[in-house]
Amino acid sequence: NGGVDQYADNDTYTTSFEMPEVYAGDLIVRFKTNNFPQENYWEIKDILGNVVASRYTAAANTLYQDTMNLEPGCYTFYLYDSADDGLSYWAWPNQGNGYCRLKENGGGYYEYFQSEFGGLITHGFSVGALASVIDNVEKDRRVEVYPNPNQGQFVLELQGLLGQYRLVVVNSLGQIVSNKTVNVRSFHEEQFDLEGSDNGIYFVRLVGDDLNITKRIVVANQ
Questions:
Q1: DSSP string for 193-221
Q2: pTM
Q3: Which pLDDT does position 141 carry in this prediction?
């Protein structure tokens, strides 16, 4: 108003917010369907709400890896389920097990989404625009086992690790059913097949110089 402000306490306003994840534009949506693929689809929308990538149709129990190269900007990933029971639901095993991941093309994973999510997942991220803010941030270390429960076939994914690790699978009685050593350079995927093993709880143990972690899985053969 052309005059001196007599009340300085309301001259400024601050707020806290969480920075969005910053990805390379060249990324992969890794989407594994369950027994009812007609209930699910995903979209990526830009800041104006335009759909820039999507998968609307899929076959049952199929893994899709859709690669895209997004321009710098802000985006939101949406994963929908019309039945509000996600890709996996403990109370309805007949649905099967699905999952969805966002992955760097040629690298590790950006984001793991919970398979039991109800009707909608939303995830905001940026491409390029904020890259200088997190250039020096070390990627998180991840140890992921999926699907869980399973019928004896499952995958162990390791990200952000470097070196030699021992992988041991034991049953609830402490008996070793699998024992191997792997060399990991940032990202590693190990396939397991416990065909013929009894139903029940198993433990996947990962041991290295800098890590000792155990993951529990459930084997439930039909």
A1: E-TTPPSEEEEEEEEETTEEEEEEEEE--
A2: 0.58
A3: 77
